[in-house]
Structures are given as structure tokens and as C-alpha cells.
Task: structure prediction
Amino acid sequence: QVQLQESGPGLVKPSRTLSLTCTVSGDISSGSYWWSWLRQAAGERLEWIGRVDASGSTNYNPSLESRVTIGADTSKNQLSLKLASVTAADTALYFCAREEFIVFRGVIIEKFDLWGQGTPVTVSS
Amino acid sequence: DIQMTQSPSSLSASVGDRVTITCRASQSISFYLNWYQQKPGKAPHLLIYGASSLQSGVPSRFSGSGSGTDFTLTINRLQPEDFATYYCQQSHSIPLTFGGGTKVNIK
Result:
């Protein structure tokens, strides 16, 4: 069973860059998957940050695109998230998740079928 | 962005009850709608995809329906482990977006 595990600093100073890693216990190059980062501030809804596939192609949430870089290292089966110029509003529980693409009713749909446990990040001086 | 609105934001129910949660999209998303269950401090867990298909391993008391802009998640015969927050999510367009959640409390 593939598992995802997020890691990184739990505390980041304002204006700095938040850097997180997601280690996947399987081959991120196999199958029809993209790999996403999401976050959830306390008491708030989930927010999708962006995603990457094994070739390095990315999609980002326009609200964060100017500050976000997501990457994939297939040799290590790791995903990375960098979020620049953080503020207190970036304090949240950060998740990585696998997004599976399947053929459904003749079209391709996607679903987050596997998640990491999440890692909390606080932005504070 | 496609806005996802869930109702109610919370509800109280008893074990054995039938619970219905609704989700409305700000524009038509066909059947590009997923439902997740989340418990405090934990990652979400996929229940339903394509608006009505049960994810493998999910109990059959969970069901989904709808298309276009209006969707429903139904839990039949509520079990103690079902007390959690439920989120809908659209996969029709980037950015992927989630509803605000419905918290199911014990009555």
C-alpha cells in the first residue's frame, strides 16, 4: 500500500520561504497520477495549492501561483513545495495527496484517493 | 473559480439516522464532484467520486447523487464512526475547490 509522508519545518518566519517535502513509498512515475499539495487553516475549508506529474508538469492555484513552486524528484520518489514570502495567513496544516485520473462514463475524471497525514506549519517571528 | 456551497454547515443526528448533505456549485460541473470525510487532525478520506460512485472499501451506507450544480451525499443508518466533517470537491476546473464542510455531530 502506497503511503505519503510530509516533512519540513513547523515554524517559518514571516517573509521567508516555506519548504516542505512529501516522500512517497512507491514509484511516483507509475500509473495515471498527479501529485498535489493542499492546505487547511484551522476551522477553514481545504485549499488546493497546486500539482505536479512525474514529468515535472505543473498546475497552480492562481491565488498562490506567484509564490508557489512544486517539483517532483522521481529518483527519490519525493515531491516538494516552496511557498515564498509567507505571512501569518499561510499558517495551516499542509497535505500532499495523490490525484488519480480514471475513465468514467467515457471521460477522464480525477479524485484525491490517497493523502499524507499532514504537517502543521506556523508562520510567526 | 467555481464556488462550492454546502448545507447545512452542521447538523446533529443519532446513530441509525439517515443524514443528507447538499452541495451546490456556482456553475455546472456535470458529474465532476467528489465527497470526502475528515476527522479532526486527520487527512480527508475519499468516499464518493464522479458524484455517485462509491470508492473501493467505503461502506455501502454512503451514497451520492446529482449532476450539474446540485449534489447530495446521503448516509444511511449513521454509525458512531461517521461523526465527522464532510466536504465536497469539484474536479471540473482549475483551481480545484472544496465546499465549506458539513460537521455531523452526535445528538
Summary: The mean pLDDT of chain B is 97. The two ends of chain B are 36 Å apart (CA to CA).
